[in-house]
Amino acid sequence: MNTWLRNLFLPNASSIKAEGVDDLFMFILWLNILFFLLIAVVTIGFCIQYKRRSANQKTAHIEHSTSLELTWTILPLILCMIVFFWGFNTYMQAAVAPDGAMEIQVTAKKWIWTFGYPDGSVAIGKLWVPVNKPVRVIMHSEDVLHAFFVPAFRVKADVLPNRYTETWFQATAVGDYVIPCTEYCGKGHSEMKAIVRVVSQQDYEKFLEEGDPEEKGMPPEKLGANLYVNLGCSTCHSIDGSKGQGPSWKGIYSAQHKMVDGKQFNVDENYIRTSILQPQAMVVEGYQGIMPSYQGQIRERQLVALIAYIKSLK
Ligand code: HEC
Ligand SMILES: [Cu+2]
């Protein structure tokens, strides 16, 4: 019974925490359904039973009933205590990572997720983790409030500026799972998505050594087109000429662009490179310097791919 209901409206459960969270959720849900039906039936029954039948009919003078009052005090108290201790227990398990868990640093900023691995490498938009290993995520934000949410893992935690928050998970099935930001953080909020890619231990080690295998052997222009979406460039830059938070990329290669400080630049490989690594160094006229720096967060190959992609947008 629980399983079909669960499948009906809860996302797939793919972490060891998910079951505990779902069980409690289902318990509360069924308890609510039960009491809703009970109260509805009694209310309707009383309406019929005690309906006023003649003009001078008087309501019986009842002051109280000790047994009834004890029942409606003690029964809900017991139920509340069950939910409290069950919830507290589940919460503690969900909040405290087991010893020896692998650690991932998560950085949120408008509107991208960045993941730092134990070996010091950094990736944007895609979090690789090995299956069946506990992973502790330590999070902070570089600007406003965001929230890290993996529905399939039943993991959700706020990400705050100026302090670390943490949570953990242990994925039980290989696959891709979305991380939608769940704290409204401005215009690009609905686009602020990343994925958790759960892979075998072997594939994970290979990833640490060689980077994302999907990016290998891909022509730079095509890789650039993927990165445009995966790295979050698409939240601010269009490719069809329409103006967004940032200038469109359509036809910018070899154009002359004027900066807010009056300087003119020819949009070439160096200009694009600097724009990505040190966006504040050259702010295009008519825009604000809100672009995040990608310095140290993307590999040289990715940079070359982005430049190739921008060049191709005639
Ligand atoms: C938060 C919004 C935002 C994101 C995300 C963003 N940019 Fe920008 N970008 C801007 C803004 C605003 C400007 C114009 C001001 C400036 O030059 O800093 C700009 C300017 C640029 C320029 C110069 C464009 C021109 O017309 O001269 C390039 C190239 C560029 N961005 C590349 C990228 C790449 C590549 C990514 C993704 C890896 C990216 N941007 C992500 C906001 C963003
Ligand atoms: Cu957000």
Describe the protein's architecture and organization.
The protein has three domains: 2-50 and 64-95, Helix Hairpins, CATH 1.10.287; 102-211, Cupredoxins -  blue copper proteins (Immunoglobulin-like); 218-312, Orthogonal Bundle (Cytochrome Bc1 Complex, Chain D, domain 2), CATH 1.10.760.10. It is 36% helix and 20% strand. The protein has helices spanning 2-9, 18-49, 66-95, 201-210, 220-230, 269-277, 300-312; strands spanning 102-109, 112-116, 122-124, 126-130, 134-141, 146-150, 155-159, 165-170, 175-180, 193-199, 256-258, 264-266. Helix 2 runs antiparallel to helix 3 and helix 5 (220-230) packs across helix 7 (300-312). The longest helix is centred in the N-terminal third of the chain and has 32 residues, at 18-49. It is elongated, with a radius of gyration of 28 Å. The model has no long low-confidence stretch (mean pLDDT 89). The structure holds heme C (HEC) and copper (II) ion.
